[in-house]
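hey so i finally got around to running the thing on that chain from the lab meeting. sorry it took forever, my laptop kept dying and i had to restart like 3 times. anyway pasting the input first so we r on the same page abt which one it is
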Amino acid sequence: MVIKKWMYMAVLGIVTLVFFIFGYYYLEQTFIAREELLKKKVKYRGLFHGLFSVTMPDSLITADELQRKVFYAVGEKGTFLKTENAGDTWNVSTILPDENLIAVRFKTENEGSIIGTNGTLLNTTDGGKTWKKYDLKTDRTLCKMIFINNDKGFVIGEESLLFCTEDGGKTWKKGLEGITEETYGDPWMLEIFNDIMFANESVGWIVGEGGIIIKTEDGGKTWNEQKLGSTAGLNTIAVLDQDRALVAGEQGELYRTFDGGKTWERKEIKVFELGDEPVKKAIYKVALLPFGEGGPPLSDVRAWHVYILGDNVGFNSYDFGDSWRTISKDSVLANYWLYDVLHAGGSLAYLIPKDKYSGTIEELRGRCPLAFMVGIEGKVFRTKDKGLLWESMSRFL
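ok and heres what got predicted. didnt touch it at all, straight out
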């Protein structure tokens, strides 16, 4: 009996040991697998950093719709995206992993430029395969780049940086050079410039922190401050012509002008689907897109949809900011930070070739149904039906 009891205890001990060993091994492998899974998730997220800017070659704006297949986007950690099939698939590459790329502009499918943190200014002549850095002799963040014709362009940034080129970006000279706060006593001189937009080759605006808004009427040679009546940071400006423009920024601040900036009217953003409570979230982008209904001429504000994007903000207005609706009832756009929007016909009103397309918005919209939005976590959204339905694009190469 003693032997049988000993044998029973031995067998029970061996079985327990086996279960312990296999259990420990299983738990260990499960832990390892979980850690590896977490690493993969981190790695996966790392491939899709936030995107700040989306663009298309200027040379394709007047091209036939079937030719408008090439688009670019840039973002955090040196992320550069390119599509050659109108957004069906995107090639992802990293240019400068230690820098955030803030804005991108392409003159043609091969000639392009990117700006970003630490004074980054990059140029390419082969469609983004290789890049050459241009030294602006600054380590400040560059926030926006714009060209008002093939040769003349501007770059703005922190500490009121303003650079100008008159040879298509081959060389740059510093604007406002030598001007400090003590020079004229203008406090905007030492603030951050966030956005720049032109109505034509002469008239343009710059907006920035502290409610800064300055205007030029001579192509950027001189700038004069306009009074907004607010110190809220301004992140973005959209310009329809030399008289009509909108600016927006922190805490849902939105202003519009109909007289070239002599007076600015504050507009509360009350979204139809959200009730009477005004939107108080940050706005990163205000844009005019040719999604208007019916047949008003391009000079009519009804021809343009005003889009505002930001911190969980995605709204549009059909009446130049009087009333607002969500961009899409589809949940695909919910709960995202959105930074930029581009219409395939040129999301900048002044780029629309009014001399060639001086007819109605319906004619223009009919040949340009495509648009993109970009934002946090590498999100790319596309519409192919004039803004009625947006789809999330997740096919990367």
